[in-house]
Amino acid sequence: MSTSADIGVTGLAVMGRNPARNLARSGYTVAAHNRTPAKMHALVEDFGDEGDFVPAESPQDLVAALERPRRLVIMVKAGEATDAVISEFAPLLEEGDIIVDGGNAHFADTRRRERELRERGIHFVGVGISGGEEGALHGPSIMPGGSAESYAALGPMLESIAAKAADGAPCTTHVGTDGAGHFVKMVHNGIEYADMQLIGEAYHLLRDVAGYAPAQIAEVFRTWNSGRLDSYLMEVSAEVLAHTDPETGAPFVDVVADRAEQKGTGRWTVQTALELGVPVSGIAEAVFARSLSGHAGLRKAAAGLPGPRAEAMESEAAGRFADQIEQALYASKLVSYAQGWNMIAAGAQEYGWDIDPGAVAAIWRAGCIIRAAFLDRIRAAYAADPALPTLLADTGFSAEIGDAQGDWRAVVATATRHGVPTPGFSAALAYYDTLRAGRLPAALTQIQRDFFGAHTYRRIDREGVFHTRWGGDRAEEGAE
Fold first, then answer.
1. How far is CA 365 from CA 168, 170, 195, 379, 411, in A?
2. Peptide bond before 59: cis, by omega within 30 degrees of 0?
3. Which of 129, 189, 204, 429 is the most exposed place for a label (fewest CB within 10 A)?
4. How far is CA 269 from CA 134, 201, 311, 344, 391, in A?
């Protein structure tokens, strides 16, 4: 076993152990450490035949085992635990060494940590990792943010363990400085929330309005997954819906509580979008839908409220409706992805990151949870026009959403008539119509604000900011 390690990993729960194994399998010597040494010894004993591991009993042992510049990966719970580990290891490191946070950190914390460690001459790299336990072991999508110097030292390692797209390209790139990697990972998770919500709404409509059983919906999803909706989440959904509960024989989806939980990244996305002034209504509705699903008491109290109940369609009509749902799902998915990329652009502008939108699409083509066939088309759209203001303005996507909108509107209308909630489909359509509207009622909103709060307004026929003094039958306008 080697006594000089290429990289060190501290924190050997599943999401730390699997990247360590991935690195060892890729030919790197990995120094392994855990606060409780038993997990470290278990890793070496169980997987020592996969590559070279250097067991480290203490932080001092781990640092001593690393070659310069030292590359130390922290895989612990985000928040205070990460700060505690950094505080423990930073005094042991030297100028030019690199600390990598592979946890699910908030990008603002990453920016703070990068700034504090930079003052000590230590590089800090916040790395977003998507792909779950299996991805961490076999190849995730990796989103590193940090200095160019740190990526020069880390990049080859990350590229060797990352997922590979169909063209063989590794699904990682230097996203940008300080918190850019964790920011992009946050937006990825926000899009993931929206994607899952939209698939759930498609399932709900196929179940309650088309009258399909879960196994039938699984077949519909498999068919859709062979076309333009080809994605990991569609594949997973089909597999789940085809599964039956071994104890009761019922469809598995029927024995699981309809209360979805969340770990916070979707909420972070919405909160940050509000701060940036970027509308991400599809993601927001997905977050709120999960939240509302968990309010069991509120839902129970409101269960008897008046309104329509869904009635299953005849077979032929159900088939036509299923085709319409496919159109609505695709169009709504496009809107959610467009909102996500707009947010990435806004974050890059706000925080001074040079993020390549096409490169983001490229590294999401494999390994990550939202990997999908049409990400290659998104990459191509930004390659053709790096200044593309919205994905919806791309010629190809615009034509497809134009073809889909009739069915999209029909699905939302049908859902409303049957009393089936479709906040994701509806929000996406409203966003699309808002973008294409010639004039919005925001003019009235501005006047209202000026009326009761003297907040001023702008006119379309001349420059400047104005305020009207309202009173009785008189209104006097003046420039501010």
1. 11, 10, 15, 9, 29
2. no
3. 204
4. 25, 21, 36, 10, 19
Residue of 183, 213, 204 whose CA lies nearest to 360: 183
pLDDT of residue 1 exceeding 50 = no
> Is 185 assigned a catalytic role?
yes
> For the segment 176-195, what is each residue's pLDDT rounded down to a tens digit?
999 999 999 999 999 999 99
How many helices (H) and strands (E) in the chain? 19, 9
Choose the catalytic residue: 192, 201, 285, 400. 192
Report whether 90 contacts 99 (CB < 8 A). yes
Q: Are 234 and 221 in contact (CB under 8 A)?
A: yes
SS3 170: strand
pLDDT tens-digit readout, 257-286:
999 887 788 999 999 999 999 999 999 999
Q: Are 202 and 407 in contact (CB under 8 A)?
A: no
Give the integer Cα–Cα distance in Å for 374 and 378: 6
Query: 49: Cβ–Cβ under 8 A, 6 or more apart, which residues?
Result: none
| 39 given a catalytic annotation | no
3-class state of residue 466 by DSSP: strand
| Residues whose CB falls within 8 Å of the CB of residue 311, separated by 6 or more in sequence, listed in order | 209, 418
pLDDT band per the 50, 70, 90 thresholds, residue 473: low
Which of 80, 116, 159, 185 is catalytic? The answer is 185
The strand order across the sheet containing 98-101 reads: 53-55, 30-33, 7-10, 71-74, 98-101, 123-130, 141-145
